[in-house]
Amino acid sequence: MSGVCRSLAFRFVLVFYGIIITTTDAQTPTPSPAPAPCALRSNTSCAECLQNVTCLWCTPTKQCLDYPVRNILPPSSVCPLNDARWGVCWVNFQILIITMSVLAGIIIIAILVCCLCCCKCERVGTKGEDAKVERQTRARKSRQKAKRTEMQLRHDEIRQKYGLAKDNPYARMNDH
Predict the structure, then answer these.
(1) From CA 30, how far away is CA 57, in angstroms rounded?
(2) What pTM did the predictor assign?
(3) What is the pLDDT of residues 8-20, one digit of tens each?
């Protein structure tokens, strides 16, 4: 992972952690006296029933029931999901399940898009960097070749000026 990708992932984790901590702190109940059993709150109102977080309000029967903690969702024999209320009176379990599923999907897609973008950006950066290094290497080699040719011409001119130029470069210098 590149530094940019790590940085983005780290920021995402920090934001997500901050959201979780904030919502957890906001939902932390203040200690209150021992709540009355949920069954005693039947035939009252939804708001009164849901003052106790362990209670479940069933709208058509107007019953306040103990939340069935062994199940994640209350079975339809207790109360249909469309009519069950828990936590707040204006959200039924069906809407809650759909909303949570959509939010989870959005978070998963956002994480995948972030990872794919980071990986793609990393590969594009590497390809561009490789091309730049290769261009610089070719330019350096062509400059070296030009300098070498120029030096060879100068040496040949000097040899010719002093009569040291030879047709056969392997011949000895003393042969003249």
Answers:
(1) 21
(2) 0.45
(3) 566 666 666 666 6
